[in-house]
Amino acid sequence: MSEFTDFLSEFNDLLTTFFIILLLLVFFYGQNYQGWYAGRLIKKSLKELNKWKKYGVNLTFSFIEPISSEGITPREITEFINKILDFFVIPPSQLDPPIYEKLRYLMSYREKRFSQLIRQFLPNIDKSSLAKISALLNTTTEIHNMHKKVRHKLIIGEKTRSHMFLLSTASEITQIMIKARAYRTALDSFKGKQPIGDSIGPMSVNEFIKEIQKNNKILELNTQKRSHGFYSSEITYKNRKCICLRPKGPDAIVGNIGEAVENVILELHEKNQHPSIVITIDAMTRLEGEKLGTVAQGLGIVIGGDSNNLIDKYQIETLCMKETPTIPFEAVVCRESLEEAVSPMSEPIKLAIPKIIRILKKIIRSQTKPNEIVLILGIGNAIGVPFE
Fold first, then answer.
1. Phi, psi dihedrals of residue 329, rounded to the nearest 5°
2. Does domain 197-378 sit in CATH 3.40.50.1470?
């Protein structure tokens, strides 16, 4: 019994010593370990980002090489792609009150300049190939920029040996990688010509027009080409004149909806006409826990995306508020995550189209009167959506 008691005493002493050493290690080296682990996580993410960027470069290369002029070497094509990836736009000063006008000019000029750079390198490129290569380059550029920013933060953290900086960067990695993975998925989507989740707006407007045509036996449709990548169709529903705008497919075109709406309103002014309501249809961010393809109705101009889309949103809101009387705006959305929006359109999203059309019709019937004008905007990427 005495021997067993001595054994327990020695064991407790060893255990106590072990925990003291462990606490000292955690106290003195805990942050070092956390910093090392954070750096390891960042480096792993960098490898993924670099792999996805190379995939985008190689995919773009495979589309450019067959349509490039004779005498252009593979090295020159690669150099051109890398040059485009580093093409940038410096935003105007936030202190300047007329920042909207400057942003609109910059984003519009950026699109023209981007297309010009591609045409200079590929003089014989057609519009469809231009749209596809532009989409691939823009998507790869996003991954390229994320890779550069993460790499910059990793190097700064290692140089300064700042464990807190590395931990802060590691905490952002999850969101960065979710976004990057969505862009990686988009590369495969743009490679083909099938509708993606973000095509829900143009597809819904197309289906709405076809349904009205079928029910009213309309053989011809009053359609005209708008500038900025949009087409508009006029159709009558319940004695309301519906002007439907959507980007022209099946190319990867989003278009400049703000300018297209402004042109329509100015043309209506010339005829002493005035829209009674603006209805936007688009995909909208789905939060975790929400069901994919859920359709919701709300107020406002729904245009998701980058700063260019925010300019369009501001432009339409301003146009509506300047009218006398002001034009109310309503929105119909389909809930999708970023990755679902850039992936080939799934069945739950397709099944949302009839629900969107039902809500759209209900808004027209309840919010407007006969002989009034309704402006319907199908927002999104028109890839794989034929113009009908």
1. -130, 130
2. yes
